[in-house]
Please model this.
Amino acid sequence: MIIVAQFIRTNWFLCGILIVICFASIAPSIGARGGILRPEITVKFFAVAIIFFNSGISLRSEDLRRALVQFKVHFFIQGWTFIVFPSLIYLLVSLMNDGPFDKLLLQGLLVLGCMPPPVSSAVILTKTVSGNEAAAIFNSAVGSFLGIFITPSLILLIVGSAVDVPVTSIFLQLSLTVVLPLCLGQAIRRRHRMWLERNPIPFGTIGSAILLLIIYTTFCDTFLQTDTHLDFLSLISIVFLIVILQCALLGLIFFITTQPWLDFHPTDTTAMMFCSSHKSLTLGIPIIKIVFSGDPGLSVITVPLLVYHPTQILLGGIMVPLLKEWMYSVGRNRYTMAKHV
Model:
């Protein structure tokens, strides 16, 4: 009993993920769009705003300024998101075109590759493993803004469809939920820095709790998705493929960014793993619905993104203790080497 309690205390976030997924499967209508929790308002606006306000008030200004000039990290994340990722997906789909896979699902995979990074999950996961949170914040915000313009253009180039995205409304939403809360949090930190340092607030725990809410509402929508008209075998195939794809991408990013000649810090690696491999459901679904408006295969085209989003959060939660242990061991080895020099 003591061992179980200790395990839960140590891995409470992972246990929380399992609990909210189970609850979502039992009562999906509570957290689904239009349900009691109204995630289209509470999560889309308030939860995301709280995440970035939380980051703004907990992040030291000097860390944020230092992250702004980490151009190598920024180029890697944005280049991977909008060039490497779409190219790898295009190659994968080209190899699968002659197989028995559903053609609309393959089209959905191509669309998935064009998506921008998320504005919340990558930041929280990076913060949870004590990674380069400032770089994660910067690239999530910049990637989301770039995605307003680049994502529809990539879909047009790779998939082909008429594109008319409401740039102004998406830009305003991102400004209100990302930029404004972050700046407000930084302003409060500058004014009350001494008080905040004397009275530590569990910002990491708050962020993790909000992420659990996002996971719950995401899975509620997933469990209620009944209009996809997919056979069971195709659905299982796409889930299996996406899990393998994400594991391969995370492993590849980890392998590349830990090469000595690139000289990335371990905290940079964690930020790049989450920011480069994650895709935004919040921005992605509206863009897909606009781009493919009136297309009879719309519901099937959205399936890869609907599967990818909860999977990335679930895998990210599983990786949190592993990455923490890796960062601790790297730091310990560096300290030992420096001690002997």
Remarks:
- The chain has a mean pLDDT of 78.
- The chain is about 80% helix and 0% strand.
- The CA atoms of residues 119 and 280 lie 7 Å apart.
